[in-house]
Amino acid sequence: MKYVPIVNQPNISQSRLQCISPSLKLDLRGYPHIAYLQKGSGTNILNYSFFDGLKWSSKNIPKIYNSSEDIMYSPNAFTLDVNESPIITFSIKTATGSKLFLASYSSSWDFNTLDVTYAAKWIGLLSYTTFDYSSSSSSSSSSSSYVNPSFYVTTFDGATLRIYSISDTAWTLMGNMAVTINNLNSLKISRCGDYEVIAFSSTSIDNSSSSSSSSSITNLPAIQYNFFNLYTSTWAFGSFQTSAASQLYGSIVDMDVVGYNDVAVFTWSSVDEQNSYICCNLIDYNGTETPADYVSNVVESTKINVTTTYDCLVNGYRKLAICLYNNLPRIFATGLNTKLFTLSEIGMSRSWANENVDIEGVSDGINISSIRADYYTNARVTFASGDIYYFQPDLVGVTFPVSHPNLSILNEGLLYNADFYSGNLSGTSISGVTNNKVGGILKDAKQKVVTTANPSTTIKSVNLNQNVVMSVRNITNLNTINSFDIDQLSGKIMITEQDTNYVIIYPLSPALGYDAIIRWNYVSGAGLLNMPMDAKFDYVRRKVWIADTRNNRIIRVDYNAEFDFETDGIYHPYALAANLNNGGVFVKAYSDLELQYGIIFYIGTDGSIINAFNFGTEIFEESTSSQSSSSFSTAIDFSSTSSDDLIYPHVNSMVYDHVRSRLWWVASNVIYMYDDKNKQVKSIRPRDRLNNYFVSLTSLDVELKTGNVFVVAVNIHDDSVIIQVDRDNNGSLAEAYIGI
What angle is formed at CA 45 by the lines to CA 41 and CA 47, rounded to 5 degrees? Predict the structure, then answer.
């Protein structure tokens, strides 16, 4: 499913300030209304935008309120009244506490305020216009009765939750309760018929005063909840309850809740040592918990087995939002892939379905900090990532974009210049260029030129516009070449030689002569190199990274081979990917001298190891849901009787997409992607549409325009195949056999 912006404008805020806490409501025409907060140094602006059928508009002026003081606002603090006019609640700090606001719009913004003696740290809003109730409070934690309330405001000051009703201009405190909430970002409220449900996630739970059956379980990640009766002004429980189901699936990453008919529908993403999960269950005001599909709390589980040394989510989903259609949940989950989970009901039977979502914000490497969803014929979403974005399904039926780039395919036979199409490659072979092992393209050259190197003869440049060898640029090299790289700014070519241990930099034009060539196998301050398997330019900073494989280290030098530093303890490094954005380097290596596991290191600009994670034996993704119950495992064989006899994986088995800050690599028959902005790893096991099993994935490259990745694979029939992998849902989009 393709999600697209309205009128080709995904960025709603277009602000130089940080924009946070988006709230989304759809009117009766299905048009979106969004409120959000802009924050800067001494500047806090509350904004409201809506789509009028032709364009994004605002009421009077974009800002609702502008203050030099911090504005407290949450994604739960916005709704529409019966006339589809915006109603927004927020608070600001005062000398004696806080001022609470209820903002409404007629011909201008009007403010109904209440001064309180506590500092509000969170605020939310619900509407209640269907019923006309009048009652007296019977709860010891409630206050006076109320008449014809229109809206309800909930606040939290760090110790106490308070619920106010607002009728005309009068604010009435209906109830309060002391509670400890460690994660205010997880605090959510929703209407459930006569009730308001209040919920949050916690990793350290105090159950000392809880009357729930799970009160003996302590210090486990969980969702806590309570219901407040808006008719009787009473709490359903004397203290917040613990959802037993939420304690079964590891640490909670994100959660959301929506209500109907005295029932709260909870969804959460979580992860334990073995799996990541999407879960959903129902809890009524009596505390009865039921799986949303009446069978299992688990909507989807994904097997993980990547060990990290830092805060990094492996597979799974980092943010999610829930909405209802006919009281059945729709869950929008996003991480390194994005899915829409839909619960359907036939008779007494319920089942989950899911659909991959292509949403441009995620594909561009945006780090989503907050997401909200609403439903009108289909699920719509808004999210914050510096600015505020809005997307909705493309009803025309556009699917995931399959890119059709030109490919230069290195082969033991001839060099191929081909166009990629699903199911086939069309193009031509280039005579005079054989036994190609490594190569590269000067991507911004006026003429498209690919330069290739075979193990031990000549480095050749080919004009791809004319498919002819540019013999004037031939470079004779008689030694075994391990790796090849091109400086995209100067056109310089760098190779490493296995037999001589040399790193060599050639100028763009061989006519400059031998004196222009820089060669070294010894670095002053680091000593002799020993089998440098790979070397990569950081052409932004004019630095060179070297994988000194048999010395088990990484070295950085400048373009004149002047030593900067070395990083030891990197066992058998054999592939590098320079991070052009911040100057570090990704290293593909092994966990120890026995080559037990594959490992990725990230080394910073000072030579220190910042991040590392293992990808070893039995690294695989196993997904179970209503649509897929297949399972598989991948064994990655790194064993060798002798490191001297070891045949290393291809140096082009790792690539960095500096546009989206994403690292891709392959090992055995698994594709991995690490998103540096979202701090998340995704593992993918591709299978083509004929259900062929890929026994090995050898190398890959990324198309910077789309972010899609092209992988060279070999299937069980010993066919070489190009796989195109989508940059968003990480699924195999298309395959093309190499058989030109």
Answer: 150
Segment 235-258 mean pLDDT: 94
Amino acid in the structure at residue 402: V
Q: Which amino acid is at 204?
A: S
Q: How far is CA 357 from CA 361, 415, 607, 705, 730, in A?
A: 11, 36, 39, 19, 11
Q: By three-state DSSP, how is residue 70 classified?
A: coil
CB-based burial, 614-652: b 16+ in 10 Å, e otherwise: bbbbebbbbbbbbeeeeeeebebebeeeebeebebbbbb
Picking from 18-32, 127-141, 270-284, 400-414, which range would have the lowest pLDDT averaged per residue?
A: 127-141
Nearest-angstrom CA–CA distance, 670 and 615: 10
> pLDDT at residue 208 above 60?
no
Establish how many alpha carbons lie within 13 A of residue 211's alpha carbon, considering only the half-sphere containing its beta carbon.
7
Q: Which domains does the chain have, with CATH numbers?
A: 406-737 (2.130.10.10)
**Pairing verdict, β 670-675 and 680-684:** antiparallel
- Integer Cα distance of 402 and 540 in angstroms: 31
Number of neighbours of residue 86 by Cβ within 10 angstroms: 22
Q: What is the pTM of this model?
A: 0.79
Angle at 495 between CA 493 and CA 497, to 5 degrees: 160
The pairing of beta strand 532-538 with beta strand 543-548: antiparallel
Cα–Cα distances in Å, from 350 out to 291, 328, 373, 448? 10, 10, 22, 55
The per-residue pLDDT of the chain, averaged, comes to 81
**Which has the closest alpha carbon to 389: 364, 406, 413?**
364
Residue type, 295: V
Give, in degrees to the nearest 5, the angle at Cα 203 between 200 and 206. Answer: 85
Q: Which residue has the higher pLDDT, 526 or 317?
A: 526
> 3-class SS at 99?
strand
